[in-house]
Amino acid sequence: MSGRASRWLKRLPKLNPHLNLHPTERWYGESPLQLPLLAASFALAWYAGVRLLAGDAWGVAMWFVGAALLHDLVLVPLYSLADRAACKALGGRDRSAVLYARVPAFLSGLLLLVWYPLISRARPEHYALVTGRSEDAFLQHWLLLTAGLFAASALWFVTRTFLAPGSPWRQAHRARRQERKRERERERQRRRETKERPPTDH
Amino acid sequence: MRDLHLPRTLPDPWRSPLRGPRFTAVLGLVLLAGMPLLFVTGLLSYAAYNPNLAAVNDKTPDKGLLGFYLFSWPTDPHWLYRLTQGLHVTVGVVLVPVLLAKLWSVVPKLFTLPPVRSLGHALERLSLLLLVGGALFEFVTGILNVQLDYLFPGSFYPLHFYGAWVFISAFAVHAVLRVPQALRVLRERKAGVAETGDLVPAQPAEPTVSRRGALAMVGAGSLLLLVTTAGQSIGGVWRRTALLAPHGGEDPGTGSDRFQINKTAAVAGVRAADAGAPWRLVVTGPSGTVHRLTRADLLQLPQHTASLPIACVEGWSTDDRRWSGVRLRDLAVLAGTDGDTDVFVESLQQHGAFRKAALRHNQVHDPRSLLALRVDGADLTLDHGYPARIIVPAAPGVLNTKWVARLTFGALR
């Protein structure tokens, strides 16, 4: 190899950062620490996974992979689109106004997501037979909590909008009052001027 | 020649200005504390069943090396299982919004192009499938189980136990590889360095909420779940605030039986007639001596009282109730042992995974362990195990067998 060619080869890593990597990283694509860690992790996952799949293997695999797919491809797009639609509908003038609907909707939706089997009364006879209690209360409680959350949010919105010292409503109110005061002042001025006017010719 | 002005990349659908490595790092560090707590309390719950004592106690007998840590479950403090399992279920429920927010924050990574860059990247993506699938699988099976909605494909115990091991294998490697990065990006924030990384949106949309606001919203979700759930475990007046927990709100019953029921007599297949006059408790020992005792005979034996809770694997528990009845160790002596031996308990119940259960010698020997006949000054009701039930300090609820029909004392293992 000519001297010129070898000098060029030595400069290569600087031109292509990929070639600066450790030889393993170059063909493996990640840090050399990652491979043994993942190997150990997969070995343990395999040991437990064989036992996890010992019964209804197809059903369990569907649930395991399905949970991730359902979350990423259905739940996330669904709530993202709902949020975007709500922002468009509510946030025309004041973007912060969206939060007063978003926060209670998020909290209420979260409660529904976690306790859906109880709230939806999926198996009311079963629950009552097992625990000796009625399942009806959960739907009522959830509706009351939802109503309470939205009511609290609305109250907060009203308070912030109308009663806070720096609120636009307060400022407008103050401006109107000052305007009226100025109007009265001008009226008084006019009257004074009228009184002091010399009498017109009879 | 006309210039076409083609966009160099497709419009980016991930435009939320909230996303970025710092937002993910904060949520990740919360899960770094929470997930190991769930895993450890879950392992403790398995140990609390004393699975190595008898086959009837073990719902995952093919556990192999995964049972390496098992130990004899103690009886002190008497609220031990109430605490560990209350934490397991309550913290699990409370972490739901954190988990969802964490997954939302990294969802663009699922759709990165090209899908696989290298061998290392392919293996990492496979590991992430085990991590995300495992986390959701564990949360979904756990949350369905505490609501008695057994939709999942198989028995809850093996699914939740082996699923936890698959999850933790991926979680551990993810933590080792990512925690240094999470700490670094948070240090950079303090140092005022601009945020970089592939989670930062290329074309951020107009913000509608600050990051602090978004984290506060997630925190509010956790707080709301805590307030509406924790009371079923803490008990007292807090049970009233547990408005959505399966065993929160009003207690069933009217008098001394006013506390939560795991399974009623009706669902266990116990009829009042079987538990009435013809009922006899059969007590046997290693020498083969057999005693048949009526309820009146049992009431003639020395009666003792113990204040103990019932704590269920589903995460709810009762406050301490005043149980009274015969000490298990007295019955063990009656059966011809020294009072420090294992016992095999059989119930009248027709249905239920734990109609037979085993207790270890330390549980039998504890002076607070009773064959209870009465609670809070009145006879047990049928739904709470009349004519006689087991009550053992710190043991999971399913080992406090109701409607006891037979006690076989002697070393089991």
UniProtKB/TrEMBL annotation, chain B:
<protein>
    <recommendedName>
        <fullName>Oxidoreductase molybdopterin-binding domain-containing protein</fullName>
    </recommendedName>
</protein>
<keyword id="KW-0812">Transmembrane</keyword>
<feature type="transmembrane region" description="Helical">
    <location>
        <begin position="25"/>
        <end position="49"/>
    </location>
</feature>
<feature type="domain" description="Oxidoreductase molybdopterin-binding">
    <location>
        <begin position="277"/>
        <end position="409"/>
    </location>
</feature>
<dbReference type="InterPro" id="IPR000572">
    <property type="entry name" value="OxRdtase_Mopterin-bd_dom"/>
</dbReference>
<dbReference type="InterPro" id="IPR036374">
    <property type="entry name" value="OxRdtase_Mopterin-bd_sf"/>
</dbReference>
<dbReference type="Pfam" id="PF00174">
    <property type="entry name" value="Oxidored_molyb"/>
</dbReference>
<feature type="transmembrane region" description="Helical">
    <location>
        <begin position="128"/>
        <end position="148"/>
    </location>
</feature>
<keyword id="KW-0472">Membrane</keyword>
<keyword id="KW-1133">Transmembrane helix</keyword>
<feature type="transmembrane region" description="Helical">
    <location>
        <begin position="87"/>
        <end position="107"/>
    </location>
</feature>
<feature type="transmembrane region" description="Helical">
    <location>
        <begin position="160"/>
        <end position="180"/>
    </location>
</feature>
